[in-house]
Design goal:
The structure is a homodimer.
Chain A (H helix, E strand, L loop, with lengths): L3 H8 L3 H8 L7 H14 L5 H8 L4 E5 L11 H16 L3 E4 L12 H8 L3 E5 L6 H8 L4 E4 L7 E5 L1 H14 L5 E5 L4 H16 L9 E3 L5 H12 L7 E3 L3 H13 L9 E3 L16 E3 L2 H17 L8 E4 L2 E3 L9
Parallel strand pairs in A: 1-2, 1-3, 3-4, 4-5, 5-11, 6-7, 6-8, 8-9
Antiparallel strand pairs in A: 10-12
Helix pairs in contact in A: 1-2, 1-3, 2-3, 5-12, 8-9, 10-11
Chain A binds a DNA duplex through α2 and α4.
DNA sequence: AGGTTTCACTAAAACGATTAACGAAACTTT
DNA sequence: AAAGTTTCGTTAATCGTTTTAGTGAAACCT
């Protein structure tokens, strides 16, 4: 590989001059600069990121921690979209992204934090992990700039979907369509789940509807089989709900399968409401009624905020950015009466 | 950050000794070694990947080029699975992965190759790109070890699905179910597409079935709308096909929508056959009849072969690894007669 | 006692860049 | 014309490692 030294000797100048010429410092003469740059191009010079980072203490490389223990990280349509959008934005700013390895049982692995230190990431984005994992907490508490998606820590910038808005919109829509017996299969406990449950109950109460305990069930996020089982339980209740909320779209498909296998129809017998707005759902009939989170905006905000934290630490505040989504009216909700 | 130098002065030994102790060289005494290692741990030492790579000429970082111009890279369920599997395997071997940025119109961007050189990737995996893009070709022709997924170059190791097996299995299955009027909406031209088309025609011929020209249509991969439109054309033919093959599962869903909007039923009026076996399809009814590519195995093979090329260049052959998938019998194929 | 091995460690160069400090012309001032 | 300013480069230190060659002391042999 051709280095500054090669260019220097080719041009009969010092290495320093070459460095300055290529970085457009003002103390190199115009034609010297031009000559050096031309030679660099002709020789096929490419800077060495490692060498550069040693001097500048900046790698222009961001760490991505993006995986739960179900390992559905990249295959999670919604988070893949967020990451895609994040990636696009940071690349525009000259950053690359590298995954923080997450396989907990590889021999010789180190903690997330040590991995991040080893690669000297300038910043880190965290999403879709166990946020109470001590290793994750350690990472968040470190001096490396961090942005989290969809989970609130103190002292950390967070980008999150407007879950309150989402649940409110869905509840309103369902109630407007005449539903009164509404069940909610919610995801496993987390700050997001709690927000959704509270909002769900509160909004229904405002509509004068109380939700019986047996209508509130827990089933993991993105677990179609769990949702399937839980839906069967709901359908066997003496007072069958007319509408079921799901923790996410995948779960909703599991639920719809249960409804169909019971010999019932969606939405004629049971209405179904998802959450997320996964892309593939737009191509499948019946179209799922759901709340589409704005993955692009989430990724964009994560990128912008992280880069601000890195490049302008003095003037950047830690904050929570809430991103609104929108109601997607599909064909899985029946208008009653 | 604590460096070798800090440990050295703490232990009253030279930097060289510390380096050797941590790397377990044989010429450091046992108790010195132990003392140094303990101190390193206590001081929270983490090696600096950049410094290390400068001396060793190895970054233990692999480049990933994984994006077509539709930017459906990460959101492509199938390729996300491949990448996930690839990632897991290389991490086991101590490698990280970094994306080669693909946004062609960011100011100051360099070619894929230059990006790869800048980061000094030890190797590169390429999938789902325009393989005839000059920049991709340049990358493949470079001296950096490369493995491609699903595209054959000379002199490059390729991991590919057994498209011949896939099409044969699907054709056999469809014919066994009594279909004779079989249309094929195939993807845009590529080595994979060509293989599939040739196999499709050949196998049907062996079954004594000739496919009229108007049954062969082209529509881009993963384009639900294109598939929708093309399906409408097929349904309007005087001799409507009884079964339609699609380039992939997404396209198949687009096609199914067209069938339904025509007031026809899948599979009663028109049977539908996909390709890929995307995960979400297992949760949606009707279940798509398709050929499930073994994404995990593809990723695993890509990882193993790439690492072999990097670590054992002398003894590793460039080769083509073919990975079989399996027929997924769903509910979208009707048994005729 | 002198010579040879072995052991445990150090010195120093090198990887490829950046940058503060310095210096020699050349050009302005007064 | 002496002094001050620009202008354009160079020198040398440095980032954190690895590695080759070398060193001195102890241990072994004869």
């Amino acid at each position: 590989m051709v280095s500054l030294k090669d260019i220097a000797s080719q041009c009969n100048v010092s290495v320093a001059t070459v460095s300055k010429a290529l970085n457009d410092h003002s103390d190199i003469g115009a034609e010297t600069k031009a000559r050096i740059r031309r030679t660099a191009r002709e020789m096929g010079y490419v800077p060495n990121a490692a060498a550069k980072s040693m001097k500048t203490n900046r790698t222009h490389n961001l760490g991505v921690l993006f995986m739960d223990d179900a390992n559905s990280g990249l295959q999670h349509d919604f988070f893949a979209s967020v990451l895609e959008s994040f990636k696009k934005e940071v690349e525009r700013e000259g950053y690359d992204i590298t995954f923080i390895s997450n396989d907990r049982n590889t021999p010789g692995r180190t903690s997330y934090l040590n991995h991040a230190r080893y690669r000297r990431f300038d910043g880190i984005i965290i999403a879709n992990v166990h946020f109470d994992d001590p290793e994750v907490v350690e990472l968040v508490k470190s001096d490396i700039p961090v942005v989290t998606i969809d989970h609130i820590y103190n002292d950390t910038t967070t980008i999150l979907s407007d879950n309150v808005d989402g649940i409110n919109k869905l509840v309103d829509f369902v109630v407007e369509n005449g539903h009164k017996k509404i069940a909610y299969i919610h995801g496993a406990d987390s700050s997001v789940t709690r927000t959704r449950i509270i909002t769900f109950n509160k909004r229904l109460e405002e509509h004068g509807i109380t939700v019986p305990d047996e209508y509130m069930r827990e089933s993991p996020y993105r677990d179609t089989h769990g949702a399937y089982e839980t839906t069967l339980e709901l359908l066997d209740l003496p007072e069958r709900p007319t509408c079921i909320f799901y923790p996410d779209d995948y779960a909703a498909y599991g639920g719809m399968r249960a409804v169909m296998e019971k010999g019932l129809k969606v939405p004629d017998d049971v209405s179904v409401v998802g959450f997320d707005g996964i892309k593939v759902a737009r191509h499948i009939r019946p179209r799922l009624t759901t709340y589409r989170q704005d993955a692009d905006e989430l990724g964009l905000q994560a990128a912008k905020n992280l880069i601000d934290l890195i490049e302008r630490p003095k003037t950047t505040l830690v904050k929570q950015v809430v991103v609104k989504g929108r109601l997607l009216e599909g064909d899985t909700l029946k208008k009653l009466n």
